Amino acid sequence: MAEKRRAPDDHVEDLTERHEPKNFKKVRFQLPRHHEGLPEKDSPATDTDDELFERTLRTMHVKERVHDILAAMYYDMHILSWRRNELMQNRIRPWPDLSFYRVQHQEAAWLIDRTMRRAMLAKVGQTSSEDLTYLSKQEAHRVGQFFRRLNLRVFAICAVSEAFRLALCKEDQLVWAVLVNKIAENWASIGTFARSRGLDWQGLLLKYADKDDSLLQQALAPVSDLAEEHPHHRVITNGPAPRKHSHRKPQYEGHLQINIDHNLFNPSYFKDKKDPTIRVPDRDGRCDLCYAERECDCWISHPTLATCLVELVDYPSRGIGVRALTRFKKGEILDQYLGELRPVDYQDDHAYALLHEPKMVEGSPLALISAKRYGNWTRFLNHSCKPSATFLKMTVGKKITMAVQAVRDIDIFEEITIDYGKGYWKNRVCLCGEPDCHSQGATKEETEA
Q1: 354-370 pLDDT, tens per residue?
Q2: Would you tell me how many other CB atoms lie within 10 Å of the CB of residue 165?
Q3: H helices within 291-377, ranges in order?
Q4: Quick one: CA torsion of 140, 141, 142, 146, rounded to 10 degrees?
Q5: Whole-angstrom Cα distance, residue 403 to residue 361?
Q6: pLDDT of residue 244
Q7: What angle is formed at CA 19 by the lines to CA 15 and CA 21, rounded to 5 degrees?
Q8: Is the C or the N end of the chain the one with fewer CB within 10 Å?
Q9: Beta strand 340-342 with 333-336: parallel, antiparallel or unpaired?
Q10: Residue 16 burial (10 A CB sphere; 0-12, 13-18, 19+)
Q11: Regarding beta strands 41-44 and 24-27, do their DSSP bridges make them parallel or antiparallel, or are they unpaired?
Q12: Which residues are paired to 335 by β-bridges?
Protein backbone atom coordinates (compact mmCIF):
# COMPACT_ATOMS: atom_id res chain seq x y z
CA MET A 1 0.00 0.00 0.00
CA ALA A 2 1.11 3.52 -0.60
CA GLU A 3 2.56 5.45 2.26
CA LYS A 4 -0.07 7.32 4.17
CA ARG A 5 0.61 10.97 4.70
CA ARG A 6 -1.19 13.69 6.55
CA ALA A 7 -1.34 17.24 5.33
CA PRO A 8 0.69 19.72 7.42
CA ASP A 9 -1.13 21.62 10.12
CA ASP A 10 -3.19 24.45 8.73
CA HIS A 11 -1.45 27.77 9.31
CA VAL A 12 -3.59 30.27 11.20
CA GLU A 13 -2.42 33.79 10.52
CA ASP A 14 -1.62 35.87 13.60
CA LEU A 15 -3.79 38.95 13.74
CA THR A 16 -2.23 42.40 13.58
CA GLU A 17 -2.84 44.92 16.29
CA ARG A 18 -6.23 46.55 16.27
CA HIS A 19 -7.82 49.28 18.38
CA GLU A 20 -9.11 47.94 21.65
CA PRO A 21 -12.84 48.24 22.15
CA LYS A 22 -14.26 49.40 25.42
CA ASN A 23 -15.59 45.95 26.29
CA PHE A 24 -13.49 42.93 25.58
CA LYS A 25 -12.81 39.46 26.91
CA LYS A 26 -9.79 37.18 26.77
CA VAL A 27 -9.75 34.58 23.98
CA ARG A 28 -6.83 32.33 23.14
CA PHE A 29 -6.29 32.20 19.38
CA GLN A 30 -5.10 29.07 17.61
CA LEU A 31 -1.43 29.65 16.84
CA PRO A 32 1.20 27.79 14.84
CA ARG A 33 3.35 25.48 16.94
CA HIS A 34 6.40 27.74 16.83
CA HIS A 35 4.31 30.56 18.34
CA GLU A 36 2.98 28.56 21.27
CA GLY A 37 3.49 30.30 24.56
CA LEU A 38 2.85 33.83 23.29
CA PRO A 39 0.59 35.98 25.46
CA GLU A 40 -3.15 35.94 24.98
CA LYS A 41 -4.71 38.36 22.51
CA ASP A 42 -7.66 40.62 23.10
CA SER A 43 -10.87 40.13 21.12
CA PRO A 44 -14.15 42.04 21.23
CA ALA A 45 -16.86 40.42 23.31
CA THR A 46 -19.72 39.28 21.11
CA ASP A 47 -21.77 36.56 22.77
CA THR A 48 -22.15 35.57 26.38
CA ASP A 49 -21.06 32.09 27.42
CA ASP A 50 -24.68 30.92 27.56
CA GLU A 51 -25.41 32.21 24.06
CA LEU A 52 -22.23 30.63 22.70
CA PHE A 53 -23.10 27.33 24.37
CA GLU A 54 -26.62 27.37 22.93
CA ARG A 55 -25.28 28.18 19.48
CA THR A 56 -22.78 25.32 19.72
CA LEU A 57 -25.51 22.88 20.75
CA ARG A 58 -27.70 24.13 17.91
CA THR A 59 -24.88 23.65 15.38
CA MET A 60 -24.21 20.13 16.66
CA HIS A 61 -27.90 19.27 16.47
CA VAL A 62 -28.19 20.53 12.89
CA LYS A 63 -25.09 18.58 11.83
CA GLU A 64 -26.41 15.39 13.42
CA ARG A 65 -29.80 15.87 11.80
CA VAL A 66 -28.31 16.50 8.34
CA HIS A 67 -26.10 13.43 8.65
CA ASP A 68 -29.15 11.36 9.61
CA ILE A 69 -30.97 12.57 6.48
CA LEU A 70 -28.01 11.90 4.20
CA ALA A 71 -27.51 8.40 5.60
CA ALA A 72 -31.21 7.71 5.01
CA MET A 73 -30.93 9.07 1.45
CA TYR A 74 -28.10 6.68 0.56
CA TYR A 75 -30.03 3.79 2.10
CA ASP A 76 -33.18 4.73 0.17
CA MET A 77 -31.26 4.81 -3.10
CA HIS A 78 -29.61 1.49 -2.29
CA ILE A 79 -32.81 -0.36 -1.40
CA LEU A 80 -34.77 1.03 -4.37
CA SER A 81 -31.95 0.13 -6.77
CA TRP A 82 -31.78 -3.37 -5.32
CA ARG A 83 -35.53 -3.87 -5.64
CA ARG A 84 -35.53 -2.56 -9.19
CA ASN A 85 -32.76 -4.99 -10.16
CA GLU A 86 -34.62 -7.85 -8.51
CA LEU A 87 -37.81 -6.82 -10.33
CA MET A 88 -36.05 -6.77 -13.68
CA GLN A 89 -34.81 -10.31 -13.03
CA ASN A 90 -38.24 -11.51 -11.86
CA ARG A 91 -36.92 -12.31 -8.40
CA ILE A 92 -39.02 -9.85 -6.43
CA ARG A 93 -42.15 -10.65 -4.43
CA PRO A 94 -45.28 -9.04 -5.92
CA TRP A 95 -46.27 -7.79 -2.49
CA PRO A 96 -45.14 -5.79 -0.54
CA ASP A 97 -41.88 -5.15 -2.41
CA LEU A 98 -43.44 -4.19 -5.74
CA SER A 99 -46.06 -1.98 -4.09
CA PHE A 100 -43.38 -0.19 -2.04
CA TYR A 101 -41.29 0.46 -5.15
CA ARG A 102 -44.30 1.83 -7.07
CA VAL A 103 -45.32 4.19 -4.24
CA GLN A 104 -41.82 5.62 -3.83
CA HIS A 105 -41.34 6.09 -7.55
CA GLN A 106 -44.77 7.71 -7.93
CA GLU A 107 -44.15 10.23 -5.16
CA ALA A 108 -40.81 11.13 -6.75
CA ALA A 109 -42.57 11.55 -10.10
CA TRP A 110 -45.13 13.93 -8.56
CA LEU A 111 -42.36 16.12 -7.14
CA ILE A 112 -40.61 16.23 -10.52
CA ASP A 113 -43.93 17.03 -12.24
CA ARG A 114 -44.53 20.01 -9.95
CA THR A 115 -40.99 21.24 -10.52
CA MET A 116 -41.16 20.94 -14.30
CA ARG A 117 -44.61 22.54 -14.50
CA ARG A 118 -43.45 25.58 -12.55
CA ALA A 119 -40.32 25.83 -14.72
CA MET A 120 -42.43 25.80 -17.89
CA LEU A 121 -44.86 28.37 -16.52
CA ALA A 122 -41.94 30.61 -15.54
CA LYS A 123 -40.73 30.60 -19.15
CA VAL A 124 -43.97 32.22 -20.27
CA GLY A 125 -44.21 34.54 -17.26
CA GLN A 126 -47.24 32.93 -15.63
CA THR A 127 -45.83 32.27 -12.13
CA SER A 128 -46.37 34.54 -9.16
CA SER A 129 -46.07 34.50 -5.40
CA GLU A 130 -49.57 32.98 -5.28
CA ASP A 131 -48.70 30.19 -7.73
CA LEU A 132 -50.25 26.87 -6.68
CA THR A 133 -47.95 24.68 -8.74
CA TYR A 134 -46.25 23.40 -5.60
CA LEU A 135 -48.02 22.06 -2.55
CA SER A 136 -46.81 25.06 -0.55
CA LYS A 137 -44.80 28.26 -0.86
CA GLN A 138 -42.15 26.57 1.30
CA GLU A 139 -41.69 23.81 -1.26
CA ALA A 140 -41.35 26.37 -4.06
CA HIS A 141 -38.82 28.39 -2.08
CA ARG A 142 -36.73 25.36 -1.13
CA VAL A 143 -36.68 23.90 -4.62
CA GLY A 144 -35.44 27.29 -5.81
CA GLN A 145 -32.69 27.17 -3.18
CA PHE A 146 -31.67 23.75 -4.43
CA PHE A 147 -31.40 24.85 -8.06
CA ARG A 148 -29.28 27.84 -7.13
CA ARG A 149 -26.60 25.37 -6.01
CA LEU A 150 -27.24 22.23 -8.06
CA ASN A 151 -28.85 21.02 -11.29
CA LEU A 152 -31.87 19.03 -12.43
CA ARG A 153 -29.98 15.73 -12.64
CA VAL A 154 -28.96 15.83 -8.98
CA PHE A 155 -32.47 16.92 -8.01
CA ALA A 156 -34.02 13.95 -9.84
CA ILE A 157 -31.61 11.56 -8.11
CA CYS A 158 -32.38 13.02 -4.69
CA ALA A 159 -36.14 13.07 -5.38
CA VAL A 160 -36.17 9.27 -5.50
CA SER A 161 -35.30 9.22 -1.79
CA GLU A 162 -38.16 9.46 0.67
CA ALA A 163 -35.79 11.00 3.25
CA PHE A 164 -35.05 13.87 0.86
CA ARG A 165 -38.73 14.48 0.11
CA LEU A 166 -39.58 14.53 3.82
CA ALA A 167 -36.74 16.97 4.53
CA LEU A 168 -38.06 19.22 1.75
CA CYS A 169 -41.47 19.40 3.43
CA LYS A 170 -40.87 19.03 7.17
CA GLU A 171 -37.38 20.11 8.26
CA ASP A 172 -36.76 23.68 9.40
CA GLN A 173 -35.03 26.16 7.14
CA LEU A 174 -31.58 25.92 8.77
CA VAL A 175 -31.48 22.13 8.44
CA TRP A 176 -32.60 22.38 4.81
CA ALA A 177 -29.96 24.99 3.96
CA VAL A 178 -27.18 22.90 5.52
CA LEU A 179 -28.50 19.78 3.76
CA VAL A 180 -28.36 21.49 0.34
CA ASN A 181 -24.79 22.61 1.03
CA LYS A 182 -23.80 19.09 2.09
CA ILE A 183 -25.37 17.61 -1.05
CA ALA A 184 -23.42 20.14 -3.13
CA GLU A 185 -20.18 19.11 -1.40
CA ASN A 186 -20.86 15.44 -2.08
CA TRP A 187 -22.63 15.63 -5.43
CA ALA A 188 -20.01 13.41 -7.12
CA SER A 189 -20.54 10.71 -4.51
CA ILE A 190 -24.33 10.84 -4.85
CA GLY A 191 -24.22 10.82 -8.66
CA THR A 192 -21.74 7.96 -8.85
CA PHE A 193 -23.67 5.99 -6.24
CA ALA A 194 -26.91 6.30 -8.22
CA ARG A 195 -25.32 5.41 -11.55
CA SER A 196 -23.29 2.48 -10.24
CA ARG A 197 -26.37 0.94 -8.58
CA GLY A 198 -28.68 1.41 -11.56
CA LEU A 199 -31.06 3.86 -9.87
CA ASP A 200 -33.94 4.79 -12.21
CA TRP A 201 -33.86 8.58 -11.98
CA GLN A 202 -33.85 9.34 -15.71
CA GLY A 203 -37.25 7.73 -16.08
CA LEU A 204 -38.70 10.59 -14.01
CA LEU A 205 -37.61 13.09 -16.68
CA LEU A 206 -38.27 11.19 -19.90
CA LYS A 207 -41.88 12.39 -20.20
CA TYR A 208 -40.51 15.91 -20.70
CA ALA A 209 -37.81 14.90 -23.19
CA ASP A 210 -39.55 16.75 -26.06
CA LYS A 211 -39.42 20.11 -24.25
CA ASP A 212 -36.95 22.71 -25.43
CA ASP A 213 -35.09 23.24 -22.19
CA SER A 214 -31.29 23.29 -21.92
CA LEU A 215 -31.22 22.15 -18.28
CA LEU A 216 -33.52 19.24 -19.08
CA GLN A 217 -31.49 18.20 -22.10
CA GLN A 218 -28.32 18.39 -20.02
CA ALA A 219 -29.88 16.17 -17.35
CA LEU A 220 -30.94 13.61 -19.99
CA ALA A 221 -27.61 13.63 -21.82
CA PRO A 222 -26.23 10.10 -22.28
CA VAL A 223 -23.83 8.94 -19.56
CA SER A 224 -21.74 5.81 -19.25
CA ASP A 225 -23.47 2.88 -17.59
CA LEU A 226 -21.59 2.23 -14.37
CA ALA A 227 -24.06 -0.44 -13.23
CA GLU A 228 -22.52 -3.05 -15.52
CA GLU A 229 -19.55 -3.39 -13.18
CA HIS A 230 -19.20 -3.82 -9.44
CA PRO A 231 -19.46 -0.45 -7.61
CA HIS A 232 -16.03 -1.00 -6.10
CA HIS A 233 -14.44 -1.06 -9.53
CA ARG A 234 -14.69 2.74 -9.41
CA VAL A 235 -12.64 5.22 -7.43
CA ILE A 236 -14.17 8.69 -7.31
CA THR A 237 -12.75 12.15 -6.82
CA ASN A 238 -15.24 14.46 -5.18
CA GLY A 239 -15.28 18.08 -6.24
CA PRO A 240 -17.44 21.18 -5.88
CA ALA A 241 -20.54 21.37 -8.05
CA PRO A 242 -21.12 21.85 -10.88
CA ARG A 243 -17.65 20.83 -12.08
CA LYS A 244 -17.10 17.47 -13.62
CA HIS A 245 -15.99 14.67 -11.37
CA SER A 246 -13.81 11.82 -12.49
CA HIS A 247 -13.62 8.12 -11.86
CA ARG A 248 -10.82 5.71 -12.32
CA LYS A 249 -10.47 1.99 -11.93
CA PRO A 250 -8.27 0.68 -9.11
CA GLN A 251 -5.11 -0.89 -10.47
CA TYR A 252 -1.98 -2.48 -9.02
CA GLU A 253 1.11 -3.33 -11.04
CA GLY A 254 -0.79 -2.56 -14.22
CA HIS A 255 -3.67 -4.96 -13.50
CA LEU A 256 -7.28 -4.15 -12.62
CA GLN A 257 -8.07 -5.01 -9.00
CA ILE A 258 -11.14 -7.22 -9.32
CA ASN A 259 -13.82 -7.50 -6.64
CA ILE A 260 -14.73 -10.97 -5.29
CA ASP A 261 -17.23 -12.15 -2.67
CA HIS A 262 -15.32 -15.17 -1.29
CA ASN A 263 -11.71 -16.28 -0.87
CA LEU A 264 -10.16 -17.92 -3.91
CA PHE A 265 -8.56 -21.32 -3.19
CA ASN A 266 -6.29 -23.15 -5.63
CA PRO A 267 -5.27 -26.62 -4.33
CA SER A 268 -2.08 -26.59 -6.42
CA TYR A 269 -0.67 -23.80 -4.23
CA PHE A 270 -0.65 -26.04 -1.14
CA LYS A 271 1.31 -29.24 -0.55
CA ASP A 272 -1.60 -31.08 1.14
CA LYS A 273 -4.13 -29.73 -1.41
CA LYS A 274 -6.46 -28.79 1.49
CA ASP A 275 -8.27 -25.51 2.03
CA PRO A 276 -6.60 -23.96 5.12
CA THR A 277 -9.76 -22.04 6.04
CA ILE A 278 -11.80 -25.19 6.74
CA ARG A 279 -12.79 -25.24 10.41
CA VAL A 280 -11.03 -27.65 12.79
CA PRO A 281 -13.01 -27.89 16.07
CA ASP A 282 -10.11 -28.45 18.47
CA ARG A 283 -8.09 -25.67 16.84
CA ASP A 284 -10.68 -23.04 15.99
CA GLY A 285 -13.10 -23.23 18.93
CA ARG A 286 -16.80 -22.46 18.95
CA CYS A 287 -18.73 -20.65 16.23
CA ASP A 288 -18.74 -16.94 17.00
CA LEU A 289 -22.37 -16.60 15.89
CA CYS A 290 -24.20 -19.56 17.46
CA TYR A 291 -21.46 -20.86 19.80
CA ALA A 292 -21.74 -24.40 18.44
CA GLU A 293 -18.70 -26.56 19.25
CA ARG A 294 -18.94 -28.48 15.97
CA GLU A 295 -19.65 -27.48 12.38
CA CYS A 296 -22.87 -25.50 11.89
CA ASP A 297 -24.65 -23.72 9.07
CA CYS A 298 -23.83 -20.17 10.15
CA TRP A 299 -22.36 -17.72 7.68
CA ILE A 300 -21.68 -13.98 7.40
CA SER A 301 -24.30 -12.59 5.06
CA HIS A 302 -23.02 -11.14 1.82
CA PRO A 303 -23.17 -8.48 0.72
CA THR A 304 -22.98 -6.83 4.12
CA LEU A 305 -24.46 -3.41 4.71
CA ALA A 306 -20.96 -1.95 4.61
CA THR A 307 -20.35 -3.52 1.19
CA CYS A 308 -23.35 -1.63 -0.15
CA LEU A 309 -22.77 1.63 1.71
CA VAL A 310 -19.08 2.44 1.35
CA GLU A 311 -17.22 4.01 -1.55
CA LEU A 312 -13.64 4.11 -2.80
CA VAL A 313 -12.20 7.62 -2.79
CA ASP A 314 -8.89 9.10 -3.88
CA TYR A 315 -7.27 10.80 -0.89
CA PRO A 316 -4.42 13.17 -1.88
CA SER A 317 -1.01 11.79 -0.83
CA ARG A 318 -2.58 8.66 0.72
CA GLY A 319 -3.96 6.95 -2.36
CA ILE A 320 -7.22 5.00 -2.44
CA GLY A 321 -9.21 4.92 0.77
CA VAL A 322 -12.67 3.89 1.94
CA ARG A 323 -15.38 6.34 2.99
CA ALA A 324 -18.53 5.46 4.90
CA LEU A 325 -21.90 6.36 3.36
CA THR A 326 -23.86 5.56 6.50
CA ARG A 327 -23.24 5.30 10.23
CA PHE A 328 -21.65 2.18 11.68
CA LYS A 329 -21.81 1.28 15.35
CA LYS A 330 -18.95 0.12 17.56
CA GLY A 331 -18.60 -3.67 17.42
CA GLU A 332 -20.32 -4.05 14.05
CA ILE A 333 -18.79 -6.61 11.66
CA LEU A 334 -18.23 -4.62 8.48
CA ASP A 335 -17.04 -7.40 6.15
CA GLN A 336 -14.44 -10.13 5.63
CA TYR A 337 -10.94 -9.54 4.30
CA LEU A 338 -10.90 -11.49 1.04
CA GLY A 339 -8.31 -12.45 -1.56
CA GLU A 340 -6.35 -15.36 -3.00
CA LEU A 341 -5.24 -17.96 -0.45
CA ARG A 342 -1.51 -18.55 -0.68
CA PRO A 343 1.08 -20.44 1.40
CA VAL A 344 2.58 -18.53 4.32
CA ASP A 345 5.94 -18.23 2.53
CA TYR A 346 4.40 -16.44 -0.49
CA GLN A 347 6.61 -13.42 -1.22
CA ASP A 348 4.94 -11.71 -4.18
CA ASP A 349 2.57 -9.39 -2.31
CA HIS A 350 4.15 -6.88 0.06
CA ALA A 351 1.28 -4.39 -0.07
CA TYR A 352 -2.01 -6.24 0.53
CA ALA A 353 -0.98 -9.58 2.07
CA LEU A 354 -2.59 -10.51 5.41
CA LEU A 355 -1.76 -13.59 7.49
CA HIS A 356 -4.72 -15.91 8.02
CA GLU A 357 -4.48 -17.20 11.59
CA PRO A 358 -6.64 -19.56 13.66
CA LYS A 359 -8.61 -18.01 16.48
CA MET A 360 -7.29 -20.16 19.32
CA VAL A 361 -3.59 -20.46 18.40
CA GLU A 362 -1.28 -17.46 18.34
CA GLY A 363 1.71 -17.26 16.02
CA SER A 364 0.71 -20.20 13.80
CA PRO A 365 -0.59 -18.74 10.53
CA LEU A 366 -2.39 -21.17 8.23
CA ALA A 367 -2.16 -19.19 5.00
CA LEU A 368 -1.69 -15.76 3.53
CA ILE A 369 -4.51 -13.74 1.97
CA SER A 370 -3.16 -11.92 -1.09
CA ALA A 371 -5.53 -9.18 -2.26
CA LYS A 372 -3.35 -7.40 -4.81
CA ARG A 373 -5.35 -8.76 -7.77
CA TYR A 374 -8.55 -10.21 -6.30
CA GLY A 375 -10.21 -8.96 -3.15
CA ASN A 376 -12.96 -6.71 -1.83
CA TRP A 377 -13.21 -3.16 -0.52
CA THR A 378 -11.45 -3.99 2.78
CA ARG A 379 -8.05 -4.14 1.03
CA PHE A 380 -8.26 -0.39 0.38
CA LEU A 381 -8.54 0.57 4.06
CA ASN A 382 -5.85 3.13 4.81
CA HIS A 383 -3.70 2.93 7.92
CA SER A 384 -4.05 5.01 11.05
CA CYS A 385 -2.35 4.58 14.40
CA LYS A 386 -5.72 5.57 15.88
CA PRO A 387 -7.99 3.46 13.64
CA SER A 388 -11.76 3.12 13.48
CA ALA A 389 -11.67 -0.62 12.65
CA THR A 390 -9.58 -3.69 13.39
CA PHE A 391 -8.98 -7.20 12.06
CA LEU A 392 -10.81 -9.94 13.94
CA LYS A 393 -10.18 -13.70 13.73
CA MET A 394 -13.55 -15.48 13.64
CA THR A 395 -14.94 -19.00 13.44
CA VAL A 396 -18.19 -19.00 11.47
CA GLY A 397 -20.04 -22.13 10.34
CA LYS A 398 -17.70 -24.47 8.48
CA LYS A 399 -14.86 -21.98 8.05
CA ILE A 400 -12.58 -19.54 9.77
CA THR A 401 -12.28 -16.01 8.47
CA MET A 402 -10.49 -12.69 8.98
CA ALA A 403 -13.18 -10.09 9.55
CA VAL A 404 -13.09 -6.29 9.85
CA GLN A 405 -14.84 -4.92 12.93
CA ALA A 406 -15.60 -1.32 13.92
CA VAL A 407 -13.83 -0.40 17.17
CA ARG A 408 -15.80 2.83 17.59
CA ASP A 409 -18.78 4.58 16.05
CA ILE A 410 -18.10 5.72 12.47
CA ASP A 411 -19.96 8.71 11.04
CA ILE A 412 -21.17 9.16 7.47
CA PHE A 413 -18.48 10.57 5.12
CA GLU A 414 -15.76 9.55 7.60
CA GLU A 415 -12.82 7.57 6.27
CA ILE A 416 -12.65 4.02 7.65
CA THR A 417 -9.12 3.21 8.80
CA ILE A 418 -7.30 0.25 10.27
CA ASP A 419 -3.96 -0.39 12.02
CA TYR A 420 -1.56 -2.31 9.76
CA GLY A 421 0.54 -3.33 12.78
CA LYS A 422 4.10 -2.44 13.76
CA GLY A 423 5.57 -5.10 11.47
CA TYR A 424 4.30 -3.28 8.39
CA TRP A 425 6.20 -0.14 9.38
CA LYS A 426 9.54 -1.81 10.08
CA ASN A 427 11.16 -0.27 7.00
CA ARG A 428 8.49 2.31 6.22
CA VAL A 429 7.64 5.71 7.63
CA CYS A 430 4.16 6.33 8.98
CA LEU A 431 3.15 9.98 8.88
CA CYS A 432 -0.34 9.70 10.37
CA GLY A 433 0.63 12.18 13.09
CA GLU A 434 -1.15 10.40 15.93
CA PRO A 435 0.49 10.68 19.41
CA ASP A 436 1.33 6.95 19.48
CA CYS A 437 2.44 6.74 15.84
CA HIS A 438 4.46 3.60 15.10
CA SER A 439 7.25 5.55 13.41
CA GLN A 440 7.99 7.61 16.52
CA GLY A 441 9.67 4.63 18.14
CA ALA A 442 11.61 3.64 15.03
CA THR A 443 15.31 4.33 14.73
CA LYS A 444 16.75 6.64 12.10
CA GLU A 445 18.31 3.65 10.31
CA GLU A 446 14.94 1.84 10.16
CA THR A 447 13.02 4.81 8.76
CA GLU A 448 15.66 5.49 6.12
CA ALA A 449 15.92 1.85 4.99
Answers
A1: 999 888 877 788 999 99
A2: 20
A3: 305-308
A4: 100
A5: 17
A6: 52
A7: 110
A8: C
A9: unpaired
A10: exposed
A11: antiparallel
A12: 404
